[in-house]
Amino acid sequence: MSTLTPEILGELEHQAIELPSWAFGNSGTRFKVFSTPGTPRDPFEKIADAAQVNRYTHLSPTVALHIPWDKVDNYIRLRAYAEDLGVSLGTVNSNTFQDDDYKFGALTHEDAAVRRKAIDHHLECIEIMHQTGSRDLKIWLAEGSNYPGQADLRGRQDRLHESLSEIYAGLGDEQRLVLEYKFFEPAFYHTDVPDWGTSYVQVAALGDKAMVCLDTGHHAPGTNIEFIVMQLLRLGKLGSFDFNSRFYADDDLIVGAADPFQLFRILYEVIRGGGYANPDVAFMLDQCHNIEDKIPGQIRSVLNVQEMTARALSIDTEALAAAQKSGDVLGANAIFMDAFYTDVRPDLAAWRESRGLPADPMAAFAASGYLQRIAEERVGGVQAGWGA
Amino acid sequence: MSTLTPEILGELEHQAIELPSWAFGNSGTRFKVFSTPGTPRDPFEKIADAAQVNRYTHLSPTVALHIPWDKVDNYIRLRAYAEDLGVSLGTVNSNTFQDDDYKFGALTHEDAAVRRKAIDHHLECIEIMHQTGSRDLKIWLAEGSNYPGQADLRGRQDRLHESLSEIYAGLGDEQRLVLEYKFFEPAFYHTDVPDWGTSYVQVAALGDKAMVCLDTGHHAPGTNIEFIVMQLLRLGKLGSFDFNSRFYADDDLIVGAADPFQLFRILYEVIRGGGYANPDVAFMLDQCHNIEDKIPGQIRSVLNVQEMTARALSIDTEALAAAQKSGDVLGANAIFMDAFYTDVRPDLAAWRESRGLPADPMAAFAASGYLQRIAEERVGGVQAGWGA
Amino acid sequence: MSTLTPEILGELEHQAIELPSWAFGNSGTRFKVFSTPGTPRDPFEKIADAAQVNRYTHLSPTVALHIPWDKVDNYIRLRAYAEDLGVSLGTVNSNTFQDDDYKFGALTHEDAAVRRKAIDHHLECIEIMHQTGSRDLKIWLAEGSNYPGQADLRGRQDRLHESLSEIYAGLGDEQRLVLEYKFFEPAFYHTDVPDWGTSYVQVAALGDKAMVCLDTGHHAPGTNIEFIVMQLLRLGKLGSFDFNSRFYADDDLIVGAADPFQLFRILYEVIRGGGYANPDVAFMLDQCHNIEDKIPGQIRSVLNVQEMTARALSIDTEALAAAQKSGDVLGANAIFMDAFYTDVRPDLAAWRESRGLPADPMAAFAASGYLQRIAEERVGGVQAGWGA
Amino acid sequence: MSTLTPEILGELEHQAIELPSWAFGNSGTRFKVFSTPGTPRDPFEKIADAAQVNRYTHLSPTVALHIPWDKVDNYIRLRAYAEDLGVSLGTVNSNTFQDDDYKFGALTHEDAAVRRKAIDHHLECIEIMHQTGSRDLKIWLAEGSNYPGQADLRGRQDRLHESLSEIYAGLGDEQRLVLEYKFFEPAFYHTDVPDWGTSYVQVAALGDKAMVCLDTGHHAPGTNIEFIVMQLLRLGKLGSFDFNSRFYADDDLIVGAADPFQLFRILYEVIRGGGYANPDVAFMLDQCHNIEDKIPGQIRSVLNVQEMTARALSIDTEALAAAQKSGDVLGANAIFMDAFYTDVRPDLAAWRESRGLPADPMAAFAASGYLQRIAEERVGGVQAGWGA
């Protein structure tokens, strides 16, 4: 018996999940970054690895860059390299948290010279975007303070608006700015964009090309994330997702690994709110494969999103609406859970094969010998990580 | 050595903290409501008790009502009764969580008839406000769902907007609507106004007379509440506070009891953002004295707010700004903490006496024999609680 | 293709999940208890409702009692009544949180007379257990304090030991005491048995007949509950489960409703540690059906536990152990997730039918007209709730 | 008016707070480690800096070492160097989280060879302790897993016991093992010693020389830490504190900075339970000065502990016990809060001067020019951090 209708499979054709270049480099905790043989040494090798994920899944046609980690002399060459491998360059992520000047802030800093430097960095990113063909400039603001009294929260918020306004003014007509919020870390008392409300009021003050980025790992314990998805879609301000999962803080685990049912609920609200297969709402991964293999970690991740999207698309929305209207609590919940509990994997495997893809992308990649090959070939040099 | 300057004492003259009538009735948990002798049986007795708090502190000139708990035949008489006791009637709080019709929502309900009923209840509250002379209609929306799938989050949000719009249209020129948000409880999966962002976008869509109410106990674990205070003041949308404190969930303990330093930080941001002694930003208590005496519990609470306001007013803001500008983390924090650690109580006691108040309001009230008197006099009848 | 082997189905035959009598009465939050037609008015009617759950599932052969809520004149008659309906009386739950004397504690109270009363209540429970044929006396200690300084934490802990020792001494040879811990509520500053560690050290000091009760809703945010399951089984001290689920605090929702994957992980550790189908480890529900129908809510709950047990039993433990040993992070996780994602419901439906049970117990019960019948028949009297 | 009696000042004479050598090196988050001029390049320079803290406060006579970060060729020489500067070498901290072999565990690893290596590391630490004259071997077990299914929780717990037993057997007669627990990080699904209960059962299984280490930043949100202090003292198993403070996760901020009232409550329970000025209960700092100056950060920290200890010692314990016994909630809380709100700083300043110490150690250190001197002198070499 088939669980996925042709309509659902048709919807799944539109799914695209951007990969972060940095997921292919080494990452870790403040205590230790473990390295693995074969880890890319430069942006080209990262893109080569990312292309493997798309090759086996057709789910990840674009790769996000991080500047300066992915700085190259010639972005046109990088772009062509990517396209030869069947992928495009996507969102450009700025970085204002690793320069010594940014110790006490960047776009919010008390000192105009530091703000100038941080704004200029973003303008440089926009310049790169023109070369890479990227639409979105993603700003995660790792700014805040560690001790009460250390910083003037209000002044920083006002300065943030001014800095963002200047960056916004630099955007091309087809470009967007997406502003990410985060509950805490690396700052431990206050963060300048700690919640969706702050990101929303900041981007709303900029204009139509500014949107909110929702990272699924950046919330307080217990937060109902699908509610925020609903609200931002309702407000027309959900620009993109950074998918990952967490048990505690910003754990950056594989999406769907910690709470698959939460991912299901999020994807349901995306669909419910018109955010699915909507170019205005970008799906991206933002994860750290601290201890597991990176390329398979990314394959697993995009498959998790695909499988859960298939489940969410399977909800009998008419029956659900009827149960909701009639106050049938257990009935509505049962319709919802039925879709979650239905195993869509056999149908997806068959569908993949019908499209010339391996039924089991994880197994196919493992069998390809790619990991062994890069471990042998990529000898010498410095493995990529989060260092500048 | 005096720690509080005449300027600070002058600022303290303007402090007013509204008391909730329901704090004088019985309250408890879902497991048990303990009663005490002398508990009021009607709104008049609640106001009499509230007036005691103001008598010994001059800090609580108004009393908030809750409809229907405080319904009376003649609000003019209630108002006159209060004024005879030196207090006024303040904010009117609506109630859409105790009628069987509201089991699945009120202003957000799927059924237009239920929404009609809930809207009409608010219009009735506005009518009462005209009689009581109240400015603010406070709406705490105890609506949500317990199970994923049970409710259509998006539809409810839209209906909430429609319902609020109709209530807003009914406000008098000098009246306001304040919309309270709450993280969870009594609903356990989703709440329709769970965070400041949602309250903000809902009231912003209404107009200038709609504001956000911030209850200090209604946030996720770890939330930086003073940041929200800062942001709402910056946006011109902080309408009122519900003060209380918490260790876990919405514990409704005495303000300042669980984390006095947090109260200090909140009050600092109120002052920093121009929200202190600003009639647009109302200070209220919203607490439950489940096991402690109620009137002394309220006296303790307003004194806690006063003492912590005095500390926050004592911060050397010029030195603080200089330290902040120069990136002197420990220096800025030390200036901040110095004000927190300075004992303002002796100065406040002397100041109280200079204004004809008891140096120690707790002791003076205890010595008055009021609690014993009401225990003897209020015999028979039904003690007030949270029942309608 | 069948997913559940005969061995797994054989294991499932041993599953028994005790129902709480109070789940069939009304419950709610401190804000409102909604009532429904047909709610039981006495312990007999509660047992009749509980028997319905077992009739359609063969999963709940016993019913837990709560004293004094379920006090009757003749327990022998209650026991016979239950047995006529195919169920037995199970765990007896004591109550030391609803008497005015217990406002500041019961087994931990400063006053020996109050402790005496609380101990005697437990001895009375043991006496009832002899009549009902119950093995387990469950103690949930709703004791604590709301304000720092209010209580002497250490003295209370020592008095708790003394009180428990006296109760323990009163147990019959085949009887056990299980001590439940809870993070918070109804006390909001400290709780006398707030975590598994405290429950463990208290029962370890009593002897072999004292065990820990783990309520899945009684932990701090983010707690890894399956780790605690593992540890208590390792220590030989896991006496029983109170199953339910939560998004925020002690929400008491249907087990598996909030985080099905967590339930899967818990059940895996139960099996891994030898706690499944082990008479020493009792499975119970402890839930509140505040807004949904109660009997279907209980049927849904036992089915959730059964379905998730089937998934957990399906894990390929040999392959898992091999992947764990070899440090194959993604491989081990994939084996684990495969069992979680496999849809066991069709096999379970077929197996139910093979045993003379309805394939879909929810539908069969709905079709039975029982709810309509009790709504018509149970007219007059006072509906059961949490009042004494 | 003096607030601190001679008895209290006498008690304060016994206070000693061990400093961590690593607090003087660079630290940061996974995103960035900021460096500062003058940061020590070797263990000798760290000890020189630590000695400064003691010089201005007489509060920190010992310095904890971390192996291998503080490995030297000649520990006798390091010990003599410290003693020349007026301090001793204290607790030795092991490290089993930075070697590639420990990616999947150390003392709990599936592979006996890895466990052997980790055990041998601890035996080497014990050998070093004999040379440094240290009493305590502190084990923080940074072991766990990131994904459900990745690890066999139960097997790891059993192997942990075996490994610890072997280490315990290697202790000298006067030596102790203290086992630290931590809620999460660097592992994000499970941690092998996540809570006090696990640490307690592991050390209880070893013997009298094994104790629990309580790091104040290592708990779930909302955890009542003073309760754990009470319980561990009651069980005779509180071996040491790692002091720091947090708003979110393991923020490692200056002790008392995030929640001064919590520090007060903790110290009260230490005193209440006989843990103050008790050599069996070691006070240590474990903090990261990511953005603030390190030596002043440590001075501020020990002063915070001293000031809060003075407040906690000032509680009128007789009056408190009487209020507790009589159920006077507000009275007991008022006595408790009175001590917290009393400003002990003037008395402490005077007392310091009477002992030949600066009234204001922060100012005196700043005036000394030490920071400028080391910035000039410590040029070249590699600044110490968390790298091996």
TrEMBL record, chains A, B, C, D:
Keyword Isomerase on entry: yes
Q: What is its EC number?
A: 5.3.1.14
Top-level class of the enzyme under EC nomenclature: isomerase
In terms of domain of life, where is this protein from? Bacteria
Give yes or no: UniProt keyword Magnesium: no
**GO biological process per UniProt:** L-lyxose metabolic process; rhamnose catabolic process
Q: Which UniProt keywords apply?
A: Isomerase, Manganese, Metal-binding
Q: What Gene Ontology terms describe what this protein does at the molecular function level?
A: L-rhamnose isomerase activity; metal ion binding
Which PANTHER family does this UniProt record tie to the protein?
L-RHAMNOSE ISOMERASE
User: What name does UniProt use for this protein?
Assistant: L-rhamnose isomerase
| Organism field | Orlajensenia flava
* Organism taxonomic ancestry: Bacteria, Bacillati, Actinomycetota, Actinomycetes, Micrococcales
